[in-house]
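so my prof wants the structure for this chain in the tokens format not the other one, which i didnt know existed until like an hour ago. anyway here's the sequence
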Amino acid sequence: MAAPGHLLAMMRAPEDSSYGRTGVGLRVEGLPLAEELSVVYARMSGLLLSEETVTTAVGLVTASATEAIPGVVGAGVTLVDERGRRTTSGASDPVVEKADSMQYELDEGPCLVAWAQRALVRLDDIDSDGRWPRWSRAVAPLGLRAAMSAPLVAGDRSLGALKVCARRPDTFDRHAEHLLVMFAAQAAILLANVQSVETARRLGDGLKDALRSRDLIATAKGILMAREGVAEEQALAMLLACARREHRTLHDAAHALVRTTVRRGH
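here's what i got, hopefully its the right format
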């Protein structure tokens, strides 16, 4: 299989090169494009094992897209969380972040449509494209003339969109579309997995905290049961009353009781 550097050079081959016409059937050195792209993403496989952040993963995605797709001046990822909050991550150029911030502010633009409709969106000439007039006028000073966004879909989840921008109109063709779609498909799986790892870790940390809090409260109840000669339910009631009286949480009240008891040496 080709080395990543050679792979990227071959990806830049024009449509009429010896590598064949663009489209779903595009092959490089006799291998399907999806398999060739997996070489690029092989360097990301360690993320799942090392539990790196989503930001790191996105940075690798946008760097690879910028290198592989001809004419790209910048790439970035719009991530949409479960509450609909939109953020740009891994932007390879500040101009991408500026263009995205205008989409979020105006609530219109190609990335938002790609995410919502789960479909590729391509603008051959931002100046003359009339689908999002406010956004097109807003980004005019940035010098962007073409843009393309592909949805990040993993299973039944739409995570956001991967986008690329160019300073020349008509920069993107079917070859570029196919590359971006392939990057987005693999990137979505990667991001979904990394997010799952982070979610599991957060849940794990929360569970550990909950267990520690439970054990601390149990210890405090045991102290009261021994000291006051009461049952577990009464000990809990006493602890709750103390928490209310001192305007503390149950955890803090239990912690204070245990700490004071340890200092006194019972």
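also thought this was worth mentioning. Residues 1-36, 45-51 have pLDDT under 50 and may be disordered.
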